Amino acid sequence: MATDTTTTAPPPFDDPDADIIIGSAESVDFRTHKLLIAWASAFFKDMFGVPQPSGMDDPEAVKPEESCNGIPIVFMYNDRNEVCGKDVVEYILSSCHPTCLRSGMPSLSVEIVGPVLDVSARYHFEWITKSVLRNSDLLQTNPFVLFAHACRNQLKEEAALAAGAALRFSIADFPSEPALKLISGYEYHNLLRCHVRCAKAASALARLESDESGVRSWLKNILPQVHSPCCNESRVDSWNHKLNLPMSKTFKFKCSTTTWLIDYLEATATQLAIIPYFSSDGDEKRLEQALTTASSCSTCATKVMSITRTFIPRLQREIEEACQETPQIITETVFLDIPLESESAH
Length: 346
What we know:
Blueprint: E1 7-8, E2 20-23, E3 28-32, H1 34-40, H2 42-49, E4 67-68, E5 71-75, H3 86-94, H4 98-103, H5 110-122, H6 126-133, H7 136-141, H8 143-152, H9 156-165, H10 185-206, H11 215-220, H12 234-242, H13 259-272, H14 280-295, H15 298-301, H16 304-336
Parallel strand pairs: 1-3, 2-5
Antiparallel strand pairs: 2-3, 4-5
Helix pairs in contact: 1-2, 3-5, 5-6, 8-9, 9-16, 10-13, 10-16, 13-14
């Protein structure tokens, strides 16, 4: 309510031409326009569409605690029937204001995700709910809070998006996020299962153990000829076997995997088994090492650029596609209660 200590919010919520004030728990008033809120919320559209009692348009007839200089004051409440704090009010109103949408929204902190979603549901700001659950900053830094709230709101696309973003973390680094209390053990178990499945699939692709897209056959066409010392090791023959290539010591002048390429693939597979997500920084270091080693060999130097420029980006795309598909499958089991096929099949 308006008091002597009430302050006005900063622009654009200090508009002198405002026709509605949204109050906050901290007595910060947000001056805005009914039309903007009504467009975004069916609740407020109905509220503002109700004819006011006779005399309400007369500033003198409006009770002081319900208006400020004749402008009605409205409060939004959270799920505990408490007046919303200024950060929540600011985020909700910024989502409705063209100036904020054009110049930049206020940051969405983890602390207000729950309150903003509660207000969005209570006052029918449905599109704000989905916008919050797709927040790009939180998908990078804390997808777990978004996964929890997406499950709570039964929004499977947003849950799958958050589950996919969680692949940037190792399971050992999953945080003790308080919002995870909102979901069941079954839902959290499926988040872990999603991670494990993606890690297995990504690692298998990097080890060339999976070839659904023909990566192995395609790689053979750009491999260098057999030569020493890059092809003269027992582990080279084990990788040749995966590619259905002859043994390096038996068939000279035939294409073969090389130690520098194997080093890159094994290092990549090891990392993906922990974090099934391509980190540009980490991959750059692995590629740099591969290029350095290959460039020191005259035979490999002629092939290294074609491998790093064509094969490796294709392999990365295959891994990314595999890791994008799995979260959608997993979230289907959460919302539709579909049993997953045996993990041993993967």
